[in-house]
Write a structure and sequence with these properties.
The chain contains 15 helices and 18 strands. The protein is α/β, with parallel strands linked by helices.
Length: 533
């Protein structure tokens, strides 16, 4: 392999985010370069720091294409990330690159590089591009240095993936197999509509399910527009929207408000979000959608507050009622309307079918995606921080609505503000999963875990090391180590749902595995304590 290694770093589309996050990125790159040079190689950064922009990230697909024209086709290539980034900025170049690729992230919840890394990995997997991947807190540990050395000499790093085994290696209970098969046949016969408010959020190529794969499951997309959503918001009166907040506050939810539109959550922002909530439900009903996803971080961010409040409410069974425009019919009465954050269609398919299964079993069906944000050991057990900007439902939190607050989104992401749906997830048994595209096929990793209760001071510490305005889940995954999840997971997102107890979680996992298998999805059972043999 060549002794010269090229380095690139994908960034955000939003200038403020790139500028704020650049110091952390520079620190990580310095450590990675030092590690490579100690092994006898040189590193050439493929794009400069640009003083006029205040950062050195690849900040657009156009710029990414320009950069790759000057990278030798077979050169070893490092993709180093300390931040959330838009994968499509560099995907075109990676798609045609002929040399070995190594994606690298810092082990930190700050911006975070881990989430950016997992999204790039999921995109490369879907695209059929070969790559290796590593992560580190200090970049001088044995795990990282050993992996880096192997990549520099052989062009690849191999991780232990023994935790993931094909469903065919297990025997599903007959009752679960029959229920899953029956539900799959029903879905393929009756079909369902997935409402997509502008496809492809933040360059997440991995989050788009090709139609020909999705159709085999019985689910079909209704491609909707955020501009339609914005127009529908204009038709909702202040009085009607105001009732959403009244309902929530009666339930005990607290809004942390101020007067400064640029830095605080204001009454005006909450009112706009309430209009979006009503408008989204009405549009979903008009088009017969069983599940919807809003691409809130592009386009709409320049027009209206973020959709986080909307998403968390839609994913909750107990939510403010929404009536048709003439006021005669309550829409989706007694139901949640599963919402997939950031129009992640893989999460949309998963979330909708999870909702159907849990309803069939009589379990609380609220489920959500989270980012695989970060994690640390706590008293001898590795506890993940799962965190998402707002899609998590109040039913997941300690105290329900009474344990829910809404705080302003960070200004560097959302100039127009908007409140989140913040809470600390309650302890309990969970089923986790991820649907993804690999080798032209729909696949799913499926496992078991638990949410643990940490002391208040430890939760506060973890919130401060990540994003304190967002909901948090302290998760332990059964039989899956930190490095195994990082090496195998094909997305920045992970789907989670509670079960009443361990036996119920195992039963639901078996039904879910059977349903997805019947729909033609290749299922991997991950880890342990799932009750299968």
């Amino acid at each position: 392999m060549s002794k010269q290694v090229f380095l690139i770093a994908s960034g955000d589309l939003r200038p403020a985010a790139n500028q704020v996050c650049w110091p952390a990125q520079l620190k990580v790159e310095t450590l990675v370069i030092e590690a490579v040079e100690k092994l006898g190689y040189t590193v050439k950064r493929a794009h400069p720091f640009l003083a006029e922009k205040g950062h050195g990230f690849v900040d657009s697909q156009k710029y990414g294409m320009e950069i790759f024209r000057n990278i030798p086709l077979t050169a070893p290539l490092l993709v180093v990330e300390a931040v959330w980034q838009f994968s499509h900025h560099i995907l075109a170049g990676l798609f045609t690159h002929g040399g070995p690729i190594l994606t690298v992230a810092n082990w930190s919840g700050q911006w975070p590089g881990l989430v950016g890394l997992l999204n790039i990995n999921g995109c490369l997997t879907k695209a059929g591009v070969k790559y290796s991947t590593l992560w580190s807190e200090t970049f001088d540990d044995a795990f990282f240095l050993s992996g880096l050395s192997k990549w520099l000499t052989s062009g690849k790093v191999v991780h232990n993936l023994s935790h993931a085994r094909a469903l065919e290696k297990f025997t599903l209970p007959k009752v679960a197999q029959a229920m899953g098969s029956s539900m799959a046949k029903e879905l393929q016969r009756d079909k369902a509509i997935m409402g997509v408010f502008d496809e492809g959020c933040m360059g997440m190529y991995n989050a788009i399910i090709p139609d020909e794969l999705l159709h085999k499951t019985g689910v079909f997309k209704e491609r909707l527009s955020q501009s339609t959503l914005y127009a529908a918001m204009r038709e909702v009166s202040d009085a009607e929207a105001g009732q959403v907040r009244v309902w929530l506050e009666k339930k005990g939810m607290r809004f942390v408000t101020g007067k400064n539109e640029k830095t605080e959550l204001t009454d005006k922002q909450i009112l706009e979000q309430s209009k979006m909530y009503i408008a989204a439900v009405r549009i979903a009903n008009d088009f017969g959608c069983a599940t919807i996803g809003i691409q809130y971080q592009l386009g709409m961010k320049d027009l209206t507050p973020a959709s986080d409040l909307v998403e968390g409410l839609l994913n909750n069974m107990d939510r403010p009622p929404v009536f048709s425009s003439n006021g005669k019919q309550e829409l989706y009465a007694g139901e949640m309307l599963p919402h997939f954050n950031e129009v992640d269609e893989c999460a949309g398919l998963d979330g909708y079918l999870t909702y159907k299964i849990w309803r069939k079993l009589g379990y609380a069906p609220e489920n959500t995606l989270h980012d695989v944000r970060w994690g640390e050991d706590y008293k001898g057990e590795f506890v993940w921080v799962f965190q998402i900007s707002g899609a998590a439902p109040p039913a997941h939190y300690e105290g329900g609505y009474q344990g829910t607050t809404s705080e302003r989104q960070p200004p560097m992401y959302f100039a127009k503000g908007g409140g989140t749906v913040k809470g600390c997830s309650k302890p309990g048994e969970i089923v986790w999963s991820r649907v993804y595209v690999d080798n032209g096929k729909l696949k799913m990793d499926l496992g078991r875990g638990k949410v643990v209760k940490l002391p208040a001071e430890e939760s506060a510490r973890r919130w401060q090391l990540t994003t304190p305005q967002w909901p948090i889940m302290h998760a332990v995954l059964h039989g899956v180590s930190r490095n195994q999840l990082m090496a195998k997971h094909k997305a920045n997102h992970i789907q989670v749902v509670y079960a009443p107890n361990a036996a119920g979680a195992n039963r639901a996992l078996a039904v879910k595995a059977a349903l997805f298998q019947e729909l033609g999805v290749e299922v991997n059972i991950c880890g342990s304590d799932h009750g299968l043999k």
